[in-house]
Amino acid sequence: MKDQDANDADPIRVTDDLIEADRRAFARFRLRVRMWVHDRARGKLIGEAFDIGLGGLRLQAGEPIPPARRYALSIDILVDGVEQPRIETIARCAWHRATPDHQFEAGFEFVEMTSPMRRRIEEFIDEFGH
Fold it and tell me: Which of 13, 38, 55, 121 has the fewest CB atoms in 10 Å of its CB?
């Protein structure tokens, strides 16, 4: 994995106005695949993930996502149009913000995850992260 220069204009970086407790503890990786994130309890698509790590993910959504709320997430992964094993976890929305293109971004922290799901994320990062 290539380290990014501190002066890089990386849209994934957590903004300075987040309190220290909300900063992620795990590295995240940009994706070369499509990941669709669903709210299992409400049976609806939340958005598309743009990065993922063992501690959480960042996604783009069409509507605001209430922070500090817990979600039962189901993550569908497509690689070259081929569906991969689904990832399911409980996550907390750690932050959200509006983007200039009238979309929304949100960061989710994984708060409950089985060992097999954690291994699936590790394998996914190993194979597709860069």
Answer: 13
